[in-house]
Amino acid sequence: MDVLSRRALNRATLERQLLLGRTGAPALEVVERLAGLQAQDPDPPYVGLWSRVTGFRHDDLTTLLYERRVVRATLYRGTQHLVSAADHRWLRPLLGPMLERWRKGAFGRATPGVDPAELAGSARDLLAGKVLTRPELGRALAERWPEADPVALARSVQGLLPVVHPPPDGTWGRRGPTPFALADDWLGTPPAAPTHGARELLLRYLAAFGPATVGDAQAWSGLTRLRAVADELRPRLAVFRDEEGAELLDLPHAPRPDPDTPAPVRFLAPLDNVLLGHADRRRLMGAEARRHVGVYPALLVDGFVRGLWEIRRAKGAATLTVRLFAPLTGAEEATVAEEGERLLHFAAAGAPELDLRLEAMS
């Protein structure tokens, strides 16, 4: 078997993730190609698309949300994601058992004595044909279960029922109570589990994140028992090893660029899935970066995490601060400044004053 170096894995992943060069493809196509975007907060999917799509504008995603072609929902790992409406239809039933376990682990203690089936039924009745905010849903459910935490009751529904969070939730700059709607009401068709959903998921994962181990796919999706699925697909897959000997699976004709392919500077979205999509994250970052990534969004230089960034507003001014793990060359600093200026114009448009600072990590 061919051995793939860490740098080879880095370049393959960046190419699949559209981070070696921006694409002119429509935003909806990119959302599907990436198998969804991490969307714990409203703004990150916009930054994620900006970093990958040439000329991306805020309205390109906002319009998809209002047209119901993209939805925000609890999916992989029990976290919020944006996926296409078409993908949600089959993904939600596939991930359902995992989400029920997630609910029990996250909210079981806060909902003592609550039967999950009864909770799901009550929530479905309350949401039928309408949209309720999380506080409204929680208060209504607490009338039936007054001993339970209303917030935990409402959030439990995300693991028990196919619900989506309609706009303006999930749109740029949105802050406010999260709305809940039944997915079949919002999208017009009920979710339907495909016969070979786990196979499709693994193939989609490899297309977006490969080459990768089975453990990587499980860490990204939150699913277990994907080894059997991989074994079924093995005749259709290419097999490699990493430098430690771990087996890596991939699609035979997927791109695996030369390890010396140049990688442009990229400001990643907060919690970008490219950083969370593998159990072993060394293809993108070292040990120090792994301790910090997740608190602040990351900066890629030469394809690897070299710093963290944050935009703060004060008195109308917007300042992009980049904290570096190690010094950059003069050429690298200039490129970071150029890309950072573009980020400011996208993320802080309208601010009367824009500023960028490079600092050493304290």
From TrEMBL:
Pfam families: AlkZ-like (PF06224)
Top-level taxon of origin: Bacteria
Protein name: Winged helix DNA-binding domain-containing protein
Organism: Nonomuraea roseoviolacea subsp. carminata
Lineage: Bacteria, Bacillati, Actinomycetota, Actinomycetes, Streptosporangiales
